[in-house]
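Morning. Coffee machine broken again, so started the prediction first thing and wrote up yesterday's gels while waiting. Chain of 751 residues, entered below exactly as on the submission form.
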Amino acid sequence: MTTHITWSRESGKMADTLDENQELCIDFVVESREMIGDVEPVLVELETESESSGETDISRIDAIFRAFHSMKGSGGFLDLNNLVAVTHQAESLLDTFRKGTAQLAPRHITVLCKAMDFILELLDQIESEFHDAGREDEAQALVEEIRGEMEGSAGPSIGSPDLELPAVEAATSSPELAAPEVASDSVPTAVEAVAEAPIDESAAITDDLVGSFVSDALEQLEAAESALLRLEHEPDEVELVAVAFRSLHSLKGNCGFFGYSEMEGMAHGMETLLDASRESGEAPTPTVVTELLEQIDHLRSATEALRAGEKAENAGETKEASEASAPNAESASTTPRETVPDVPSTAVVKNKDEKKRQPSAGNIRVDLEKLDTLMDLVGELILAETMVTHNPDLEGHHFEDFQKASLQLNRITRSIQDVAMSVRMVPISGTFRKMLRLVRDLARKQEKQVELALIGEETEIDKTVVEAIADPLVHLIRNSVDHGIENPEDRVAAGKPEMGQIRLEAKHEGGEIWITIEDDGKGLNRNAILEKAQGKGLIDSARGDLSDAEIYRFIFAPGFSTAAQVTDVSGRGVGMDVVRRNIDELGGRVDIDSRPGEGSTITIRLPLTLAIVEGMLVRVGESVYTIPLLAIRESVTVEPGDVTQLSDGQEMVSIRGDLLPILRIQELHGVLGAETELGKGILVVIEEHGNSFAVFVDGLVGQRQTVIKALPKYLGSVRGVSGCSILSNGDISLILDAKAIQAEWATGVDS
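Came back before lunch.
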């Protein structure tokens, strides 16, 4: 069984002690969280589209419906009765929109979001306790609330019959939970007890949904087949029966959703055979296993035929399927089932022609720790390749064959690096889209009108960085809605539209990830921040006038707030210090720009944790630095007459009519033995967003493609540096951050 990334990374040591049922619960939690994370933003977008156009995108309703349906099916298998009750009622509400018997309204979005929040709470409990008992009253209240919204919808009154939650026994005190019990056909399951109202599950099945079904079905069949094959050699491992059963149970539910009735009947018959073994506590006989494996082959053929474009014949269950749906339990455990329905012959024949060119399932789950190890090894490979091809022992020698081999090694190494990095990179869209719900809820609570624009959702970022940036984004977005965007009447009085705008953007910039939060609100109150900082003793009395940027940084101080009153959103001075702490831990920085009456812009700059950088190696004293090649405009030598010294000691150089400031790295980092005479060194002209300046170095070493790594934490913050690399001789080379150097030099702010 696959252990998902979240579990293996956070609780890997515990995974070895889990029984099969607990592992199923963990898998269910991970999958359900992913589904909610995907569809919650879609729900919020539906509201905006529905309000603006008066129409509802049924394909999006279907996507949300399918998520609730999938959670309901798997939750029923695991006896998660509270979760099943809520998901079923939410599913019933969504079905009214799919059928066109009700019109989507904001109140429906609100109650569905509330259902998702409750499900997430249940998932937290399931993850730790492996059951959802004890929340019956809350679940029943939410079910009634959803039903009330259904009955209040436009059109005929639609709702399910009175729903009573099935009783859930208290969790056993034993740390080992028994395998989940699934009732036979004669006793209603948890899902059947709740799902009394029929739901049209076959409406608007799109090609994308069919593609998802195919991928999931092949994965379920693979899991069932693997478990059955192990059972043949390890008949004492009866928990494998539960693994195969659960896979076929999930497949059966998905087949029913898509209307593939013959495949559903086949899966149900196989499920019943396995259920007999689960009840007896004995592994199925080799004959039964053989029969089940044959049926898995038939289901796999039918599934792959769907991927090839075939349409399953689903006019209704065949007589054989009906007869096979409830075989005698006693005979099932000892004899093969004789009446398994055949998959449509056209699908099987088509599959025979397609097998040679059909690709395998395109996605697999990989333990994140394995990816971490892979990245570390690839980084070491890059460094080893550099040490070999640029070995000091080779200086002065030319070996033609060695040069050819080195070039080939370089090409292969770079290709491996690119692939390894791409595996860890994920779009930031998942994190961004969660902010849609946040903005909606906050705006409604404060009676404001706010629109959130997402830009650069496709920007890819390291998975660990995505996880770490989520909390800072929440605090910054909350701040923009609460402190930035004004009430509608205030905006109109200021000559602004009632609808406030927040812009959330991500992009790659010079080897970094830049995330920008911009709003068109009232901006930061410079005087209020300065007064509060003085009152808290945050300003050194010996310092002179502070720049706006310096004053704005005080909002990141712990306990700092200018709010007049404490609310449930803000005012206690917590949150922004969390932003700074999290960003600092990632080796990034936060820049603030605010315009009174016009709005504020906060930019988060995050360095890549591991990346290839084309850089120029420069020597300063005994140290070697790396300057990103993209930032370099040119390198020049100057005469003393080209340099002018200002009254404050700042050196300026005239290059082709431009007067540029000179920045000395040896002064920034206190490098000993560095050249001090400008005429004996070299000026590297760097251009950063239209601003140019010259960095004085002793000399150029050469151009290199190097690996950038984050600085070790024990070094703390190093001014003007974004990371480091290892040279061919094993020495460390600090990678200069052009913009940070310029900012540090211009403001004189200590890190």
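The two ends are 49 Å apart (CA to CA). Going to sketch it on the whiteboard this afternoon.
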